[in-house]
Amino acid sequence: MAQINPVVGDISGNVQLVIDAAKQAKTQQRADIVVFPELTLTGYPPEDLLLREGLYPQIHSALTHICDSVKDVVVVVGYPMMDELGERFNMAAWIENGQIQASYIKQHLPNYSVFDEQRYFAPGKQPCVVEHKGIKFGVLICEDIWKVSPAVQAKEAGAEVILNLNASPFSQEKHQDRLGVVKHRVDEAGCAVIYVNQVGGQDELVFDGGSFVMDSQGQVQVQAPEFADALTPVVLHKTAAGSIAVSAGQQAALFEAEARVYEALKTGLRDYVQKNGFPGVLLGLSGGIDSALTLAIAADALGADKVEAVMMPFRYTAAISQEDAAEQAKLMGVKYSVMPIEPMYAAFEAALAAAFAGREADLTEENLQARIRGTLLMALSNKTGKMVVATSNKSEVAVGYSTLYGDMVGGFSPLKDVPKTLVYRLANYRNSLGAVIPERVITRPPSAELRPDQVDQDSLPEYDVLDTIIKAYVKEDKTPQQIAAMGIDETEVRRVIRMIDRSEYKRRQAAPGIKITHRAFGRDRRYPITSRYSE
């Protein structure tokens, strides 16, 4: 099982990954067959690159190069194909002895959540079964394993083992979901499934790997690691009774709940930075929990030498915030600087004095502080080439508790799909590995520190209540009445829902961020900005 990390659009680079992995599997592990993920040659998801006619000659050349370069081991690899009529297909090729001996067209094209494959591909209808060394292999691609017919169809065509090529994005419960689905297919088809998944980050998606083999009895006999490139051997043999047995093999340890999310966030940020060629990142370190966790993720993902933190205090910034920010930066070994914003604020205040005459101070002055900080960070980014990392969490993103062109600035937002209550759990998890986030950052009441004695709960419900409402409304599509029936005041429920609905315009302008839940903001949840719909 070749669990690799391709780069979308880097066809030559992805081909080299395939060739190198195939040769390594053959020479080091005596492999007969090497199975790669879905759409390996383009990376996943290629999105509208699939509409470029110039893509397909490159794919043809890539397949030819693999055929010419790998002749002593079978390669099963995913790729897109366009026929002479202009129809496109999500394909898998069985390459043996330097030739494509068989190919398979994906039958079930997902068109929900982050997937829109029906925009690009036409479905296949036929099974693909290939015999090698006395064992008959059926080939399926990703979504096919989530449906009944393709696995049964392959079995009826003679398949004794299913090879399933995947590009299955991470979410918190996804690994257990996969095990449950594959168990159903094993029960229906009565044969083992070899499930090979992609690993790595691609924009808002993270692929966690975690490839595995489930035998015909529904037992996982081989488990590849999560969030790591891996060549994991699988040994099959035919028993005296004629059935196919899977020898017990590697059983990589899987991550627990918070650890798994933390690894996903690290992977997503690392690959976004590295695949896009940024020399490093910088962020505003406020002394609060969100920026503290973001700094920890960035340093762990990229290395302390690639991370810069900037404290930008104002008259409302507490001394303990400045102390805690400096302490964490020192503990993590990142570059740290302090840029007070009082002089810049005074200049803006003077420039706006005539226009604001006779008007009371309000959110305008608070937002001005955030926007000055955003301007400083973007100036540093322009000068150094480092990408600004935004620090907003999902709870804030949901209700618009953030400032456009202020604390929302950035090229990437690691916590965009992380609710505030999970932020705290992740901070405690990271400290369990080695204390880097000062304890009072975790224990003190959260505050934007944009006015005297401000705390988040001046404007928002308690975060455990807020996150419950957000989950019920955003992820589960519950009505206000259904949410109120969970024991939450209906007036509060309706207030939060109004905030969520009215903040869509902000979310459209926010940086992309890592999807970790079943429904994230962005391409996963698409709502109109201009809308009078109400419940």
Question: What layout of secondary structure does this protein have?
Answer:
Blueprint: E1 2-3, H1 11-29, E2 33-35, H2 55-69, E3 74-82, E4 88-96, E5 99-105, E6 129-132, E7 135-141, H3 149-156, E8 161-166, H4 174-189, E9 192-197, E10 199-202, E11 205-208, E12 212-214, E13 220-223, E14 230-231, E15 236-238, E16 244-246, H5 257-275, E17 281-284, H6 289-302, E18 307-311, H7 319-332, E19 335-338, H8 342-356, H9 363-384, E20 387-388, H10 394-399, H11 420-432, H12 439-443, H13 463-475, H14 480-484, H15 490-502, H16 504-508
Parallel strand pairs: 2-3, 7-8, 8-9, 17-18, 17-20, 18-19
Antiparallel strand pairs: 1-14, 3-4, 4-5, 6-7, 9-12, 10-11, 12-13, 15-16
Overview of this structure, please?
With 535 residues, this protein is of the alpha/beta class. It has two domains: 2-254, Carbon-nitrogen hydrolase (Nitrilase/N-carbamoyl-D-aminoacid amidohydrolase, 4-Layer Sandwich); 258-455, Rossmann fold, CATH 3.40.50. The chain has 16 helices and 20 strands. The protein has helices at 11-29, 55-69, 149-156, 174-189, 257-275, 289-302, 319-332, 342-356, 363-384, 394-399, 420-432, 439-443, 463-475, 480-484, 490-502, 504-508, and strands at residues 2-3, 33-35, 74-82, 88-96, 99-105, 129-132, 135-141, 161-166, 192-197, 199-202, 205-208, 212-214, 220-223, 230-231, 236-238, 244-246, 281-284, 307-311, 335-338, 387-388. A six-stranded mixed beta sheet has the order 6-7-8-9-12-13, covered by helices on one side. A hairpin with a 5-residue loop joins strand 15 and strand 16 (244-246). The relative contact order is 0.08.
